[in-house]
Amino acid sequence: MKHVMWIRLFLAAVTALSLSACGGSGGGGAAPGPGITLSGVVEDGPVFKSTVYALNRDGSDGLYGPCVTDEKGRFTVTVDAGVDLKSLMLFARGGKDGTTGPDGLNFRGMVMMAPLEMYEGKTRSVVVSPVTTLVGLDVANGSSLSAARTAVAGMLKVSEEKLTARPSVEGGHFHAKTMMLSLVATARRTKGCKGSAFEGLTFSVDGLPDTTDHPELDEAVAVIKGALERGQAPGEVFVRQRLLSCLTDVLDANSPSSSKEDPAFKTRASRLIGDILAAAGGRPIHLESMAPERVIRWVLRTSGIETYDTFLGDTFPVLIGWVRDNTEIASIITPVASKYNIREPLFAGELLGDDNAKRLDYYFNSDASHLYKAEKLIETVRDDTVNDYILERVALGLAEAGFFSEAEPILDTKIFSTWYRAEGLRRLGKSLLEFKERTGSISQETVVGAFEKSEFLYKKKIESVGKAFFDDKDSSGLQCLIKGYRDAGEMDRADTLTDYMEECIAAMSESNKSALPRIIISMEKTAEAYIEEGNEAQAALYPGVMFALAKEVPADDAANPDYPGKEDDPNVVDYYRSKVFYLIRTLEIYGSLYENFGDASYRAGALKAYCVIEELRDTYPFTAEKTELYLANWGIPSLFAIGEDGIALALTDGLASKYRKKVYASQATSKAVAGEDMDGAFAVVDLITDKDPEDEVAFKVDALTYCAANSKVKRIAASLIAKGSHRYSHAVQALERAGGLLDTFTTDDGEINYKIKVQRGYVKLAYLYGLMGKIAEQKANLEKAECQARSTAGALWKVQALCDTAQGWHGLGNNSRVTLCLHDARLTADAVREGEVDATKLAETYYWLMKAYERLGYREDASEVANIYSAKSGLIFDESLTDDQWATGSYGKHDKLLEDQGRNLIKAAKVLIAFERLDNAEALLDSVIATKEAFYDDGECVDLCVGKVSSTADKGCLVYTYACAGAVEKAVDAARSLGVISEINRGVKAVAASLTDRDHFPEKSTYSPKPEHWVAQVDTDGDGLPDFFSPLASPEDIAASGLTLDPDSDGDGIPDTTDTRPLYAD
C-alpha cells in the first residue's frame, strides 16, 4: 500500500510541477475563480517558493492549483464548489525555509501534505507543516483521520488540537519539534532515503525526533534546545545567532576588541536584535541570503555606531531608540539581498583604495553587481525552469570571479532541476580548474569533487527516464564533462565516463532514434574544437561513434510523390537525405583529422563513410538529387583533402553547375596548398563559370582569397598565408590574379560595384597583403577601393563602400584617409532627401555610417549619427505604408514595417549604450514599446519584444537591450505585458542573460569602444578604466592589457581612497 501511495504522490508532484508555469500565485496573487478558496501557509519557518496543489486522496482526477508560496509561506488554491474536502489531500512540494538551521533548509525533492478533512470549516487558515505531513502519511497509508491524529499527537506528546497550529505562532516546544522534524527529514533526503523523508521517524520520550543517526545535526539541535532552556522563541534562535555574528563581524572590522565577551555587550546586542526583528514585522530574514549582513550594517551606520566603544557607551539607548518602530527595515530584508547598498556609506576601515580584492568583494556583494540584479529577477517569476536558468548563470558568474563559496551553495540548494545543477557544477569545476592552474589556490580534490557531483547528477537525470531516451543535451553535457576530467588530468575517470556515454548511445539507438541527428552534430562540434586546438587523441574518439550513429539515422518522410518513374522504381519513394547528411559530416571529420594529423587510419575511415554514402545515393535516386549540396559543401572537399582526387572529380562532373563552383574552389585550394601546384590551382579556378558575370567574378575572387560569406573558410591566398612566410610568394600570385579579375570587371550597378569591387574585392586583397606585411600592395589596393567607392552609384552603397575603405585605411594606420572617407560618407548620407529613397534604406545608410564611426573609435560622431539614425528609423512605418494600402486594407507589410522600425531603433540604442548615453537609449526603447498595441499579429510583436523561441537569448530583442541600458524594471514590465506565461518567461530569461553577460571589456567587441581584454569586466563610469581586475590576472597579464585600475570608479571626482560610496556618484 505504501509503495503504491508513493508512486501516486510522485506522479502528482510531477504533474503539479509541470503545470506550475501555467497559473497559480502566492499569497497576493490573481483573484481565485468561483469555488471553495483554500488559503493558508506552508510552515516550519515560512517555506518560500513551495508548489502547492490539492489532489484526490485516491489518486484519481481532481488536481486543483498549483500555486507558489510567497516569502511568508502563504498560498491560495481554489477547488470546485461541490467538492468533498474529505476526499482531498493538500500537497506542498519543494521550497526553502530560510529561517531554520544555520543556513536555512531546502525542501527540494520533498513533499509535505495535509488532509483537508482536518480543516473543514477553517478553509482560510490551512496549515501544511511537518506535523500535518505525519498525519497525512498515516491517512494515505490507510488510517482514518481520527486514528492518525491520535497516533501523531501521541508520538509528539502534544494535544490533538495543536496538530493544525502554525508552528511559528504556537512557538515553544511545539515549534522546536517541527524544526527538528524538518532538520531530520532534509538530512535523510540528502542521504538519499527512499519514499517520504518524514516517514518512519522515531521519537524520544519527550516527543522530540530522534537525531542519533544524524550527528551532523548535533550543533543545530543544541541551539534549539538551548533556546527552550532560556525561554527564547525557537523560531528566532538561528536568525538571532546569525545577526549577532554579523554584528560582531562589522564591529571587529572597525575596532578589533574582546568586548564581545562582555555580558553588557551581549545584553545590548540582544536588545538591538530584538528591535530589528520587531521592526521586520514578521517578515522572515533568510539566513542563506545577505539580508542579515545588510540590515546590521544599515542599522549600525544609521545609528552612528562603528566601534565597540560606542556600542557600550552611555549614548547607546538613544542611538538605537528609532530601530523598533522603523518602517524601512522590512524592505531591506528581502529574500535576495546584497551585503552592500551602494547608496550607504562604507565604514572608515572598509574604504576600497586600490586594493583589488576589496574592490572585487565590494562590487560582487553590492546591489550594483550585475549578478545581484540578475538574481533579483527570481522574485518576479513562479517557474522553476526560469529560476534555475537565472541562478545557474549567476553561480557561473560568481565562480568566474572566484567567489566559489557563494557559487556552490546556489547550485546545491537553490536550483531545483537536476540538469541545471549538473551543468552548473560542471562549469564550477571548470572555473576551479582554471584557478588551480593559474593561481595554485585550489586543490585537485576540490576540482574533481565538483566534476564528480556533476557526473552523479547527469547520470541521475539520464537514468530517471532511461538510457533509451538519451538525447543531445545529455550527450553534450557528458562530452563537456569528459573534457573537464581530461583537462584536469583525470584520464581514468574520463575513460569510464566515455564508456558510460557509449552505453547510453547504444541503448538509445536501439529504441529511440529521434535524438540521433542532434547527438551527431554535438559530437561533430566537439571533434572540430579538439582538432582546432591540436588535440588529436580527443578528436579521434568521435568519428567512429558518429559513423555508427549516422548509419542508424532513419529514412526521412516519403519522397516527392511526383518523382518521375515512381511507379517503375519503388526505391524512389525511400528518402535518405538526412542519413547521407550525417554520414557526410562524419566523412568531413575524418578528412579534417587526416589533413591535420596525417594518420592513414583517418583516410580509411573517410573512405568507409564515403562507400556507404555512395551506396545510398546510387540505390535511391531521390536521395541522390537532394544531397548534391552536401557533397559540394563538405563531401567532395573532404575527398580532395584525403587525396582521392579521382573520386572527387567524378562526383563533381555529376553535380549541377551551381554546386560545381564550390567544389572547384575547394579543389583549387587543395592543389595550391597541399600539392603546391599553382598553375593547376589557377586552371581549376578558371573552370568556375556563371551566367551572371558579377557572380562569376565574385566566386573566382573568393576562390583565390577566402569565402566572403564566412571568412573562416580559407581559400587559396588565405590558406597559403596561414602556412607561413615560405608560402607568401604563392599567395601573392593568387592575389595578383584576383586583382586582375577586379581590374577588368565593370558595372553601372551601385550595389554590384560595392559588393564585388570593394567589399569582396580590393578591401579584401588589401587585408591579405597586410597580413604578409606588404605595405605598398596594401596601400595600392586601398587606393583602388577608395576610387571605386567614390564612383559607386546609390547613397546606401556608396556609404558602405566608403566605410569599408575607411576600415582598410585604419588597418594601415592612415588616420587622415580614415577621416576623409568617413567625412565623405557622412556628406553622401546627409545629401539624401526624405522621399527620394525608401525609408528603410535611408535608415540603413545611417546605420552603416554609425557602425563605422563606432567601430573606429569616433565616439562623438557615432553618437551624433546614432541620433540621426534613430530619427530616420522612427519614420519607417509612417513613410513606407502607402495611402493606397491603408485605403484598401492591404496591411501585409504593416507588422513587418513596425518590426523593422523597432529593430533599427534597438540597434541605435545599443550604440548609445556603448557610449554610456543610457537615458537617450532608454528613450528610444520607450518609443519601441509604445508601438506594441499597433501590431495586428502578436507573433511579430513577441519576437521584437522577447526574441524568437531559442535555447539562447536574442541579444537584439527589446527586453535584452532595456536591461543593457539599466532599465531592468522596464524590461520585466515589457515581458509581463505580453500576458502569455511562456513569452513572459522567455523575456525574463533574456533580461537575465543581458545582466549576466555584462562585460565592458568584451573579447569580441560588438558595441563597446573600450579596450578588449579578459583581465577586466566592469567599468561603472564608462571611462575605459576597470573597477577591478580578474582574480586570475597576473601582473604580467594586466601589464599586457594596457589597462590601469580606475582611481575613481563612479566618476564623481572623489577618489576611491576616500570615497565612502565608491560606486554611487555623489
From TrEMBL:
Residues 1039-1066 are annotated as: Disordered. InterPro entries: TSP_type-3_rpt (IPR028974). PROSITE patterns: PROKAR_LIPOPROTEIN (PS51257). GO terms for molecular function: calcium ion binding. Residues 1-23 form the signal peptide. Keywords: Signal. Gene3D superfamilies: TSP type-3 repeat. It comes from the Bacteria. This is Tetratricopeptide repeat-containing protein. It comes from Desulfoluna spongiiphila.
